Amino acid sequence: MTLLGRNGMGKTTTVRSIMGLIKPKRGEIKFQGRDITGWPPYRVAKVGVGLAPEGRHIFPNLSVGENLTATAHNINQLADPWNLDRILALFPPLEPRIKILGGRISGGEQQMLSIGRALMTNPKLLLLDEATEGLSPLLRNQIWNSIMRLKDKGQSILLIDKNLKSLLKVADRHYIVEKGQIVWTGNSDKFSTSPDLQKRYIGIWRSSNYG
Ligand SMILES: Nc1ncnc2c1ncn2[C@@H]1O[C@H](COP(=O)(O)OP(=O)(O)O)[C@@H](O)[C@H]1O
Ligand SMILES: [Mg+2]
């Protein structure tokens, strides 16, 4: 599923609130029926939410391998948990970087690392906030392919991204956010066949974003 909406509409704020990084002023956050409003991030992570944040925020002074293991856990005893080998199979460019400091690898590698780090917490729900932002088309494609592989494995993912076409292809359900409120929800077909939706809530998209 996705959160769609123009810049500044509150998508990042929503996922940061879910993760417990900021406290919502109003409302409640429920995860699998449990009220997790106001929980600190480590507790939210323990019940099974993993975030690859906008801007990546990898640990610059830890190696790639340390970044992956620093917050790793499988508290919910998910079958077939993630480990280093499986992350490196999903993101092969990280393998030769494993001993390099996180701050010294490329933006695309940092993005892979950020997603890999979130996966190492074996999340039931993975939050990906602008995971292809600022990357070359080639790297963007690599990330989308990895996201597809995760989806095929049955991983639940909440996606935020500016590449509308890819989002419509990869995700089933969409929620449009406007000023912090959900103003529309529907599947990819419904979105694609509602021509005014894109203009009204998403704005005019640059052709590069539409690719
Ligand atoms: N529900 C809200 N109420 C008040 N301010 C909000 C709300 N959601 C977001 N903001 C503010 O709007 C700005 C942009 O929000 P952000 O979540 O980064 O947008 P997006 O990720 O959709 O581009 C931030 O300064 C944030 O504090
Ligand atoms: Mg944002």
Written description of the protein model:
The protein is α/β, with parallel strands linked by helices. Helices cover 39% and strands 16% of the residues. The chain contains 10 helices and 8 strands. It has helices spanning 11-19, 41-47, 64-70, 84-90, 107-119, 137-152, 164-170, 188-192, 195-202, 207-210, and strands spanning 2-4, 30-31, 34-35, 49-52, 125-129, 156-160, 173-178, 181-187. It has a 3-stranded mixed β-sheet. Strands 4-5-6 form a 3-stranded parallel β-sheet, sandwiched between helices. It has a two-stranded antiparallel sheet with strand order 2-3. A hairpin with a 2-residue loop joins strand 2 (30-31) and strand 3 (34-35). Helix 3 packs parallel to helix 5. The model has no long low-confidence stretch (mean pLDDT 93). Adenosine-5'-diphosphate is lined by residues 5, 7-13, 180.
Give the structure's gist in a few sentences.
By secondary structure, the protein is an alpha/beta fold.
Keywords:
Rossmann fold; binds magnesium ion; 3-stranded mixed sheet; alpha/beta; binds adenosine-5'-diphosphate; 3-stranded parallel sheet; 10 helices; 211 residues
Strand order across the largest sheet? 1-7-8
Average the pLDDT over all residues and give the rounded result: 93
Report the uncertain regions: none
* CATH fold label: Rossmann fold
Structural class: alpha/beta
> Could you tell me the number of beta strands?
8
The gyration radius over C-alpha positions equals 17 Å
Specify the overall morphology.
Answer: globular
The percent of residues in helical segments reads 25-40%
The fraction of residues in strands falls at 15-25%
Q: Main beta sheet, described?
A: 3 strands, mixed
